[in-house]
Amino acid sequence: MKVLILAAGMGTRMKSKKPKVMHEIMGKPMLNWVIDTSKELTNDIAVVLGHGIDKVRTILNDDVEIFEQKQTLGTGHAVMSAEEFLTGEELLILYGDVPLISLKTLKNLISKHRKEKNDATLLTVDLENPYGYGRVVRNKDEFEKIVEHRDADEKQLKIKEINSGIAIYNITSLRKALKQINSNNSQGEYYLTDAFLYFKKVGIFKTDNKYEVSGVNNRVQLSELSYIARKEILNNLMLNGVTILDPESTYIDKEVKIGFDTVIMPQTYIFGDTTIGEDCCIGPMTRINCCKIGDNVKVLRSECEKAEIFNNVSVGPYSRIREKSIIEDNVKIGNFVETKKTKVSKNSKAQHLSYLGDACIGENVNIGAGTITCNYDGKNKFKTNIGKNSFVGSNTSLVAPVNVGENSIIAAGSVITEDIPDSTLAFGRARQINKVGKLEKEREKGE
């Protein structure tokens, strides 16, 4: 079986600089939702693109074949644009702006098609308000024809069963039918629905879920389907052992994986290729993007992005763990601490008000409040290394490149510009001078 996804439309009602099918639902472009579902059925997948083809290419992998519809002349013409793909026995046609179609429904559609040996099998749904949709007309419960809304008579307009556009075809039958349809209509387009006039046997599979066959034409509809997708994602996580205290304020992308007995607090946002282990507590008011997080981790009111956090780690509140940070077991990253391209080794602590950038911090190191690794000289970035079991006093500035040995202590308020050997006490502060009585004399002069 092959899958052909039609995604050539302009999407003018989106009022956007990017093609409609690139707009995201829960962190993933609509077209990629359809492709990922298709890959559960077959590896033989093609996409018909048109408007913004060069932009859409950027979100597609090499295993998806691309055809171009150079003129927007209808769905039938879009399928004709992929004529060389129409070989073999079966073709499932999907749409790039109908992202929530389920694997279960498609399998049921395919099964019915094969069992009945149809030329085509159409996916339909009943809508309370079918305005604008093509109606499916039956004769003694069997398929008779599809009537577009503008062509329907008064009786046909009362039909609630609509054509979703999704269907599976016998490829030989489809190729013959495509040669017979024409563009003699008010739009001057080739309608794929006209092909059904030339099939001998058409089956129907009706779904009871209108959302999985709903298309997106504007940002209101995008928001509606995003809400449905988000609700399903959260429900699946909860049914698989994750506690989500307030689903209404929680956003978790489809690709995110979360382990048993992890608790997601309110106002938490988890995006991208993120994995979170078991027995964690994430949030509230936390944002995580593309991170790998171990077991028994607490992240409170913080941001983590493109970082790796090991087991039994505490982060926050108000911390920022930036890209290429590695936070090892039993580390504590406290309030208003930022890391970037930094490895913090086991059992180390940075509890308050610090910036650790381009650094490697050994095991059992204590970073005092207000510590800064001065990694940038205005032109280049440099690295700071701190050996295990060392203590960095509060308000220390480490001017990179600089190395601090093991078992060393840096006095509070120091500016460190040179390497510190192992087991060394280092000072790097100006000498304090107290001028007793000087302040009173200055005040008397002022008066």
Automatic annotation (TrEMBL):
Cofactor entry: Mg(2+)
Residues binding acetyl-CoA: 369, 375-376, 394, 412, 429
Residues at the active site: 352
CDD domains, per database record: GT2_GlmU_N_bac, LbH_GlmU_C
Positions of the MobA-like NTP transferase domain: 3-126
Chain intervals for the UniProt region annotation (Linker): 220-240
Keywords: Acyltransferase, Cell shape, Cell wall biogenesis/degradation, Cytoplasm, Magnesium, Metal-binding, Multifunctional enzyme, Nucleotidyltransferase, Peptidoglycan synthesis, Repeat, Transferase
Record-listed UDP-N-acetyl-alpha-D-glucosamine binding positions: 6-9, 20, 69, 74-75, 95-97, 134, 148, 163, 217, 322, 340, 355, 366
Cofactor details (free text): Binds 1 Mg(2+) ion per subunit.
GO molecular function, one term: glucosamine-1-phosphate N-acetyltransferase activity
Top-level lineage group: Bacteria
Segments for region (N-acetyltransferase): 241-447
Subunit structure of this chain's protein: Homotrimer.
Family (UniProt): In the N-terminal section; belongs to the N-acetylglucosamine-1-phosphate uridyltransferase family. In the C-terminal section; belongs to the transferase hexapeptide repeat family.
Protein name, UniProt field: Bifunctional protein GlmU
